[in-house]
Specification:
33% helix, twelve-stranded mixed sheet, 17 helices
Length: 510
């Protein structure tokens, strides 16, 4: 690992605050710079892992190797998945962000600050109700959270009402934290959070509690992006960590903005498949933030596509086609990259290359796991050679009806026949239609639809919209499909059982 001061000097970062030798906080920039943004996404996730983070880090290093100053802007790992099914989230092989253990386990305390801010609000809400309830709070819509997979907290009984915990990554404070343009915007978004409703069915906002300054005090240091190094010795800003299946799935706007001021290129990654994080990145972040999204990189593996096709690449290639077409629907500059494994056959690689060409996009092999940045030189050169301006398109206009926004998503991105919902949920759709915000779909990450088992052509399927919420601070409308949960649980044999601590050294599963 290179000392963080050496890395910061390569990019001329000012006034860094170091956390030991390998981690630092950097000041936020008020405006976007000239750096071009590269979005890394993937085909539908499988048990094999497609390697978006690994490719993003490797591509970042490759751009630096060919003489283009580049910074990776990535999400912070949540300790829930680190202890759960996924394990660590810092890349792999020779394309990693360092120091791995510190980043995976607590890091600079940003998640703790967000959790504490969230739960302070929850405590003050109940305190207000206990002491005469002068705000006339009749329904509380703001939940507690914690950064852990704990299914026992999905349904809890408080004094006087039932409630549930969210995992911190799915909390509105996380969304507000990651979508705020600057610290002043963070204040306004916090004030706008709806905490509940009174007896006249009017919304009650966080500003009514009079605690916004206290919440800002908790979040002040956390709001500064974290600077670390890659295994190649280049810069990465790691900040914010919303999940892409139940939240918007992108690193903080603050870190993206800051990175564009110090680099020619910024490589960022959006969670899960392109139907999740990538769609939300374009639909939510690019609408009123002026930065240059120069290209989208779609990561896939031969193993993953075969898994999507029940063992047959010819069937699984449909998944690649769907994600490519979805990305082309939203932006014009799309590149496919195959994350290479040793057992990949030449015939399979050529099949994917030729298929990608038939879709109108280029396909480039990368070998970042084995070779680090040197394994993504072809991919980096391909991106640098892009001359045409990326054309951004949106599925809907913000003034469209909420029903049509949801309908557009399920038909154009999920490629199903439509959606159904209960009478109660339909009433919510009508009630929330006044909020002209983007939608943020919460659904399973393991298929294009609302059930994990859905594969192949699902054009006759109708998705089930089970609930809908307005997040007025985040300026989002969350649409819940199927059995999606905002508090994950641990599997029978979670990754936490594989963590070893021997002679002062901790080892995490990879």
């Amino acid at each position: 690992m290179d000392n963080i001061r050496n890395i910061s000097e390569k990019y001329n970062f000012d006034k860094i605050t170091t956390y030991g030798d390998f981690i630092a906080k950097v000041p936020n920039n008020e405006k976007f710079g000239k750096g071009k943004v590269i979005l890394v996404t993937a085909t539908t996730p499988t048990k094999y892992g497609e390697g978006k983070t690994t490719v993003a880090i490797g591509l970042n290093d490759a751009l630096n190797i060919i003489g283009k100053k580049s910074i990776a802007s990535l999400r912070e790992p949540s300790m829930g998945p680190v202890f759960g099914l996924k394990g660590g989230a810092t890349g792999g092989g020779n394309a990693k962000i360092l120091p791995e253990n510190e980043i995976n386990l607590h890091f600079t305390g940003d998640f703790h600050a967000i959790t504490t801010a969230n739960n302070l609000i929850a405590a003050v809400i109940d305190n207000e109700i206990y002491h005469d309830n002068k705000l006339d709070i009749q329904e509380v819509t703001f939940n507690r959270c914690m950064d852990m997979n704990d299914r026992a907290l999905r349904r809890i009984k408080l004094e006087g009402r039932n409630e549930s915990f969210n995992i911190t990554a799915a909390s509105e404070i996380m969304a507000v934290f990651c979508l705020a343009k600057d610290f002043n915007d963070l204040r306004h978004r916090l004030d706008d959070i709806i905490i509940g409703y009174n007896s006249r069915l009017s919304s009650i906002h966080l500003s009514a509690l009079g605690i916004t300054d206290a919440v800002l005090g908790i979040l002040e240091t956390a709001f500064k992006p974290n600077l670390v190094g890659t295994s190649g010795g280049y810069a990465a800003l790691i900040h914010g960590g919303p999940f892409a299946n139940i939240a918007h799935g992108c690193s903080s706007l603050a870190s993206l903005k800051t990175a564009t001021n110090y680099a020619d290129y910024v490589v960022t990654e959006a969670g899960f498949g392109a139907d999740a994080g990538a769609m939300k990145f374009i639909d939510i972040l690019t609408r009123d933030n002026k930065f240059d999204l120069c290209a989208s990189v779609l990561v896939t593996t031969i193993r993953a596509l075969k898994e999507c096709g029940d063992g047959e690449l010819e069937k699984g290639i449909y998944n690649l086609a769907t994600h490519v077409n979805n990305l082309l629907l939203m932006n014009s500059n799309v590149i496919v990259t195959i994350n290479k494994f040793d057992d990949d056959s030449i015939d399979d690689i050529d099949f994917i290359k030729n298929f990608s060409k038939s879709l109108g996009v280029k396909c480039v092999i990368n070998d970042v796991y084995q070779s680090g940045g040197y394994g993504a030189l072809d991919l980096a050169k391909e991106i640098v050679e892009i001359e045409e301006k990326n054309k951004i398109n949106y599925l809907y206009e913000l003034d469209d009806s909420l029903y049509n926004k949801i309908d557009s998503y399920v038909k154009d991105i999920c490629h199903v026949a439509g959606f159904t919902c209960s009478f109660e949920v339909m009433n919510k759709i009508n009630s929330f239609d006044k909020y002209k915000y983007p939608i943020c779909v919460a659904k399973t990450q393991y298929s294009l639809g609302d059930k994990k088992s859905l594969k192949g052509d699902i054009s006759n399927h109708k998705m089930v919209l089970t609930d809908i919420e307005v997040k007025n601070g985040a300026k989002l409308i969350i649409c819940y499909f199927g059995n999606i949960l905002t508090m994950p649980g641990l599997s029978e044999n979670p990754s936490v059982k594989e963590i070893k601590y021997v002679d002062g050294v901790i080892s995490l599963p990879r």
